[in-house]
Amino acid sequence: MDSDRDLFEIAKRALGNAYAPYSRFRVGAAVLTREGNVYSGCNVENSSYGLTVCAERNAVFKAISEGARAFDTLALVSESSHPVSPCGACLQVLSEFTPALRILLCTPDGIRRTTTLSELLPDAFGPDDLPR
Ligand code: THU
């Protein structure tokens, strides 16, 4: 079994559920937890545009809500012809839980780039930066 390929396929399936009538830019994500569970998410837009939530945050919040706390890999697929990175807000949310997360950047054709959260968000602010 190729788990990266499986994670990509799950993210791509989630893209099909995207609610993106305003941008028409559909995004899907899937996270693999350290325990081996997978949670997926899609972007959910709103007529009050600022309330939109990205696919990555929906996937991670689903996982956290089910008790997960640490992740191994996230797959992100959009309809762009080039692999896009998670937005800054999503990078920060992901960093809260797994600063060294593996990230698969995908187009609908497949995995185009394998990177890490620490590469995309070096010197991230985190829980250890808060005063005790
Ligand atoms: N979007 C995501 O879901 N993830 C990203 O990493 C980038 C942007 C969504 C938000 C919005 O629904 C649409 O893409 C256009 O910005």
User: How are the strands ordered across the major sheet?
Assistant: 2-1-3-4-5
Gap between N and C termini: 45 Å
Count the beta strands: 5
- Taken in chain order, the helices and strands follow as HEEHEHEEH
- Secondary-structure arrangement, i.e. CATH architecture: 3-Layer(aba) Sandwich
Number of domains: 1
Q: What would you call the structural class?
A: alpha+beta
Any idea what the radius of gyration is?
14 Å
Strand percentage, roughly? 25-35%
Describe the main β-sheet briefly: 5 strands, mixed
Associated small molecules: tetrahydrodeoxyuridine
Shape estimate: globular
The CATH first-level class comes to Alpha Beta
Report the CATH superfamily.
Cytidine Deaminase, domain 2
Question: And the CATH topology?
Answer: Cytidine Deaminase, domain 2
Q: How many helical stretches?
A: 4
The average pLDDT is 97
Low-confidence stretches: none
> How much helical structure, as a percent, in the residues?
25-40%
What does this structure look like?
This protein is of the alpha+beta class and 132 residues long. The chain has a single domain (4-125), classed as 3-Layer(aba) Sandwich (Cytidine Deaminase, domain 2), CATH 3.40.140. The chain has 4 helices and 5 strands. A 5-stranded mixed β-sheet has the order 2-1-3-4-5. A hairpin with a 4-residue loop joins β1 (27-33) and β2 (38-42). The protein starts with a helix and ends in a 12-residue tail after the last helix. The model has no long low-confidence stretch (mean pLDDT 97). Bound molecules: tetrahydrodeoxyuridine. The site of tetrahydrodeoxyuridine has 13 residues, from α2.
